[in-house]
Amino acid sequence: MKNKKLRNVAMTGFSAILLWSLPAVAQIDEGLVAHYNFENANDLGKDAIGHGPTLEIAGEGGAEAIDGIKGKALELDGFTWLESYEADAIVTGETFSWSLWYKAGEDRESSGGIISKSPDGWAPGAKALFKGEGDDFLGFDVGWVGAAEHEGEVFDDDWHHVVITCEFFEEEDGEEVIELAYLAMYVDGAWAGELEEEAEAFGEPEESVFRIGSGSPGDDADEESEPFPEIPFFSGMIDEVRIYNRVLEEEDVIELLKDGLGELPKPEIVGQPADARGIAGRSAILSVEAEGILLSYQWFKGDAEIEEADGPSLLLEDLSAESAGEYKVVVSNDSGEVTSEVANLTVIDEWSAEIGLVAHFKFEDEEDAGKDSSGNDNNIFDEGVVLAEGIKGQALLLERDSRLSDLDEEFELNTHASFTWTAFIKTEDDGGLIAKSPENWSPGSKAIFVREGVLGFDTGWIGDINGETELIDNKWHHVAIVVEAGEEEDAITLYVDGNEDGFSDGMDMAWEDDPGVLSIGFSSGDFPFEEEPELNWFGGQIDEVRVYNQPLIQEDIITLMIEDGGQIQAPAIVDHPVDASATEGRSARFRVTATGTGVQYQWKKNGEDIEDANEATLKVKATKENEASYSVEIFSEYSEVRLTSESAMLKATPRPVFGGGELAHVAEFLESYWNFDSEEDGIVADQIPNSTHAGELRDGAELSEEGEGYGGKGRALDPSAEENAHMLAADAESYDFNSSWTWTARVKLNDIPESGDEVGSGIFGRSPADTGHNNGSKVMFFNGMRLGFDTGWVGGLITETEGELDTWMQITMSYDSEEQVIAMYLNDEVVISEEGEEVIDFEFEVNEFPEDEEFEGGFVNTGFRVGSGANNFYNSPFPGLIDDAAVWSTVLSPEDVALLANGASPMPEVSDNPTLSVSRVDSGDVVVEFTGKLQMADSVTGPWEEVAAESPHVIKAGDLKANSFARSVKE
């Protein structure tokens, strides 16, 4: 089934979303099994059509009939519900749909079950529509499977309509036919969530009871019979409960919605699109805010429709003079339409500091510290602040007991749209800087702050981002947060002293409300420093605060930094690139570390520019043609200083030649092999010739005693000493786990590893070397005795297959990047998932986050460890030994895995036969590459003379003889 991800805009009692035409209202009887309309006050549980069971009142309170969305409704006090133990007619183990209306009662904080079919205790396959804690969460849960979830204004003073549809169907997977179940949830006519799994997991448990106003109440006599949700009873009103034995289509959902409402309320525009100024080559966004349900949008330039401009926001990219003009939007639904006021877009050639400026606080007025100097009169209130000398004139001097705040809530700033905040700060400790939030942190609150010494930004209940530059040094630093609103996800950039300090494009500001007021010198009363709430107030100085309703670019940020008192830092090289080597066909990396404002990079090969090589790191494939001198030029458009780094050489080492062994046919793909038989100063050699992946024993990891390795021979890795003990491979960046790979090792467990949620003992971990689990991390682990795999911020898999204690086991995992499937083996057997499915050709979105893309916490490709997963993630002590660990850059076949399980070494025999190749380059020189010893002669029959040379040996064109012969012999 296709995901239907939509961006909802919460309105009064409903959600705004794309409209389809509404048919005339009609009773939907096809497939109707039961209809509870609560019209009979003396028999509230009676089915109005006579097909379904009659429900009995249960619980300790009362149930009453009151005025509802249509006629009478059922009112429940949170202690009472309706139920039937004879509800065979209401089936959830095959295709069904439920439709109902609800309205929250006075208790908005407690959870509660709205309608369910489940045993007394929550069980696999049980089903319940439920209210979460608070007033903004609605879910439909299938026991032991998962939940379709919706967040928004769904428990307020209005009636809301919910439809659950669940379709059981078959799908072909090659020659196999799989039975699946797909569940969808609609809230107020709009698709709101989904859940898909194998049909068996959706099966209805035995002794299931149908309930209205409750989930599973639990069984006091049975300690294992747990309720669901935690408080299972609903407080509020329920009306028009309809049960179907078919899937309701989208038009049915709308018809039932209109059946309750009678007629859709006409759209109303409550926030008109505003005039805007854009800069040529950049983008601009126009937005409208409307109330109503099932809304459709169509934007116009003048009187001409704009194609595909059918949302509440209009994004105009790559602006030019032709983009300027008058824009409007028509908002409509089945009940009518309304046209917005005209918004004028002007396009200018260059940016200036006044464009999009909402407020500028200079702190120059002792009598009115919160005075806005932008001319927009967006003043905020002084709550006890003191002024002192700043970066430019006066500045706030805060001692964690004062702030500036918009107490009258007249400062208009829409943080669902693009915005920018900038400021100068000077501090010796963490603290809150600028926020838009209620007094206490709430969903949708926003704040920038100094946390753990670096700049941070958080959006309540959505996500956060942190920078890297140290700010606690009692020096002035310019900081900025830029949010560029997108249609589904927003681009968020942190800047420190004019340079990008953090970036994220995975958050959506509009998923939560936009609450609170603007504060300077304060974040909220209880966040981000929950343990030390005094740090939510700022201690130090703040100067030159600017607020924009546009996303500024780096060039703008630097312009403001200079204008507001900062200085340009000239480029400087901190660390030069160093020589690198890699096996032919693999990649080497050169790095430079530089400081300065707006630093740019241009890498060079033998003094010539390399196209598109403009980052601090250069990745080069190791070939003979690429053996050269590499340097990088460092410069900035804000400084006349241009620096060239020291040169670094690339050496492409020949691939090892393998002469035999059971796995010789895949030997060219063997990237690393550690047999753990020896170490020197804590370094374990990689047995692959010319490898750069020697392993460092860290955090208490050591090698076992002689004779404790696999087969009673040699030694093995012992990472059991403490949490996070592991071996870290060097040059981890040169592994390419974006492409196909296989990890193999032999393991022996002496004790049962820790088990639980996201805990266990890691076997392999592709994760940052020195930070925690991150987007795209890959970890293979034991959870208890069961094998598992997790990909950071994507998903995890724990299998049902269990290992054994005190015996050597071969574990293998492979990933096919073309097919995007994984396979996992224990010995030579494919492991089994929790659903009973073999984990081979198992679909898993392993590389949703490319591992060479930087996320908060750093690059995933900076680390590869054996014996642990990641810092603070599957890093419990590995209670045993690991031997013969290997990394392959291909997918091993089941036959290859069987060879390993039967004792074959990952390492084929390395041939010591000499090799020789001769080539002529453009200059006429001859290049001789060889292994062994090089000999030359004037005749093919000799005599041969040994040449004192290293490979490659270059014979200049002028030194060549008419007849020359070369050969290599064993050392």
TrEMBL record:
Pfam families, A to Z: Laminin_G_3
InterPro entries: ConA-like_dom_sf, Ig-like_dom, Ig-like_dom_sf, Ig-like_fold, Ig_sub, PTX3
Gene3D superfamilies: 2.60.120.200, Immunoglobulins (2.60.40.10)
Alphabetical GO biological process terms: immune response
Annotated region described as Disordered, given as residue ranges: 202-229, 692-714
Domain named Ig-like: residues: 267-346, 571-644
Name of the protein this chain belongs to: Ig-like domain-containing protein
Protein's organism: marine metagenome
